[in-house]
UniProtKB/TrEMBL annotation:
Gene Ontology biological-process annotations: L-valine catabolic process; thymine catabolic process
CDD domains, alphabetized: ALDH_F6_MMSDH (cd07085)
The protein's enzyme class: oxidoreductase
Enzyme Commission identifier(s): 1.2.1.27
Domain Aldehyde dehydrogenase, chain residue ranges per copy: 16-476
Organism: Actinomadura soli
Protein name: methylmalonate-semialdehyde dehydrogenase (CoA acylating)
Lineage: Bacteria, Bacillati, Actinomycetota, Actinomycetes, Streptosporangiales
Length: 496
């Protein structure tokens, strides 16, 4: 049985709480390790280490800081198969998908390698006679990152490369369901030459999170997870004077107009609906089919989804298990509820025959047609391989449905009509929009974030918004040579 500890002061640390939680391989159901669960005292030790490391890291030249980020990028690129294996073993997603999440995370490291350029300020000479003004952005101090189970590498990588390159120190609190990726990343940083204390991993659950939200040593919190916890994190950390960005849950709609290329649309719906077993915040969970298009589209989706090979993520299958037995049962419960409430179960994942051990947390792709907006399968974030089809009479009816949904992470439209697509991108209330693109995850140099209940706070992740989040502005006004004595003048200074 592996012991999975915290990472503090450049080494693994089991903590003093004595509390641990089981870590399971979702493809077998077997417990493979036990992760340390921090108490408040462990949290304070981790934060104190990040605080102690901050002054020297902030003062290290940008050139030297960036060289370490470059080395981290090289090591990550060379050793990504190792990390992918760890992700598959604890999350369950298939290896190719785990490699995909690492690549998207690596793109943020590559973006952070440009930090010297991103941190450049502005300078105005002679704003007033002999007076110059310059602006700069400075790091905040120790920052907390709290991440969900579904992207154990990519989501932390959205934040920490930028935070670290900008001169902050980081305490990462990963999900207790798949904690090993964070420790692996910490070891990689150490190998890249990052000084001890700049990157810390604090394992645990609510107690660890609460310490990050309330401890005055932490200056900012980036959170990603479900909406109720995102709301709690936003309210608590901001009440404690911290800068917060809290990304929440999602219910992403795919609007299909009757003129869409239905083969390409069906491919996209299946890939975006069932990739990573639907455990993606950018998964398409609702297809809104306008006019009579559903009658032609649903059979095409069903045919493709039925061909998905479900099984152990190490065996070249298309789709792995769900993360825990409890989550699998919850998702299956939504299928039961949809069926009871009148949805047609076109493809039923409850009877899947996986290529994997009997104890794995299996659920196959499920397609529900004739879903209506009051059904729980429509209102709730299911976070599993369940794709619902809602039929709408017109574009306007479909858009009203999408825009009245409380979530606004992503949305996409499939059509051959450029005017309709342009209208959709203008009107839709979502932070990330796809036009004939089903999972419109922005590149690292743009920013990732939703609207409405999908994000609390006003800054999205990565891109220049990420740089802004992890730095604060300062404007310096200076006069040289020193002025001759001008006597007392209590008036508001005017420029001359
Ligand atoms: P979660 O909210 O259960 O957990 C997220 C983090 O919060 C974990 O580190 C967890 O340990 C911690 N946590 C859990 N309960 C807590 C509590 N009561 N108090 C304080 N901290 C607590 O989410 P999850 O199940 O790990 O991840 C899935 C969710 O994340 C989905 O809702 C998904 O949509 C969302 N998500 C959103 C995005 C996005 O970009 N918007 C990206 C990925 C995942």
């Amino acid at each position: 049985m592996r012991e999975i500890g915290h990472w503090v002061d450049g080494k693994e640390f089991l903590g003093s709480s004595g509390d641990t939680a089981p870590v399971t391989d979702p493809a077998t159901g077997r417990v493979t390790g036990r992760v340390s669960m921090a108490d408040a005292a462990d949290g304070r030790v981790a934060i104190a280490s990040a605080k102690a490391a901050f002054p020297a890291w902030r003062d290290l030249s940008l050139t030297k800081r960036t060289q370490i980020v470059f080395r981290f990028r090289e090591l990550l690129d060379q050793r990504r198969p190792e990390l992918a294996k760890l992700i598959t073993a604890e999350h369950g997603k298939v290896l190719s998908d785990a490699l995909g999440e690492i690549s998207r995370g690596q793109e943020v490291v590559e973006f952070a390698c440009g930090m010297p350029h991103l941190l450049k300020g502005a300078m105005t000479e002679n704003a007033s006679t002999s007076v110059d003004v310059c602006s700069m952005r400075q790091p905040l101090g120790p920052v907390g990152i709290i991440s969900p189970f579904n992207f154990p590498a990519m989501v932390p990588l959205w934040f920490f490369p930028i935070a670290i390159a900008a001169g902050n120190t980081v305490v990462l609190k990963p999900s207790e369901k798949d904690p090993s990726a964070a420790l692996w990343l910490a070891e990689l940083w150490a190998e890249a030459g990052l000084p001890a204390g700049v990157f810390t991993v604090l394992q645990g659950g609510k107690t660890a999170v609460d310490e990050l939200l309330t401890n005055p040593g932490i200056k900012a919190v980036s959170f990603v997870g479900s909406t109720p916890i995102a709301q709690y994190v936003y309210a608590t950390a901001s009440a404690h004077g911290k800068r917060v960005q809290a990304l929440g849950g999602a219910k992403n709609h795919m609007l299909v107009l009757p003129d869409a290329d239905l083969d390409a649309t069906a491919d996209a719906a299946v890939n975006a609906g069932f990739g990573s077993a639907g455990e993606r915040c950018m998964a398409v969970s609702v297809v809104v089919a306008v006019g009579d298009v559903a009658d032609r589209l649903v059979p095409k989706i069903a045919e493709r989804a039925a061909a998905i090979r479900v099984g152990d993520g190490t065996r070249s299958c298309d789709m792995g298990p769900l993360v825990t037995a409890q989550h699998r049962d919850k998702v299956a419960g939504y299928i039961d509820s949809g069926e009871r409430n009148g949805a047609s179960v076109v493809l039923d994942g409850r009877h899947v025959r996986p290529d994997g051990a009997a104890g794995g947390f299996w659920l196959g792709p499920t397609l529900l047609d004739h879903v209506t907006p009051e059904m729980k399968v429509y209102t709730d974030e299911i976070f599993g391989p369940v794709l619902s089809v809602v039929r709408a009479g017109s574009y306007d009816e479909a858009m009203t449905l999408i825009n009245t949904n409380p979530y606004g992470n992503g949305a996409c439209v499939f059509t051959r009509d450029g005017g309709a697509a342009r209208r959709f991108q203008n009107e839709v209330e979502a932070g990330m929009v796809g036009v004939n693109v089903p999972v419109p995850v922005p590149m690292a140099y743009y920013s990732f974030g939703g609207w409405k209940n999908s994000l609390f706070g006003d800054t999205h992740a990565h891109g220049t918004e990420g740089v802004h989040f992890f730095t604060r502005g300062k404007v310096v006004t200076s006069r040289w040579p020193e002025p001759a004595r001008s006597g007392l003048d209590l008036g508001f200074p005017e420029n001359s």
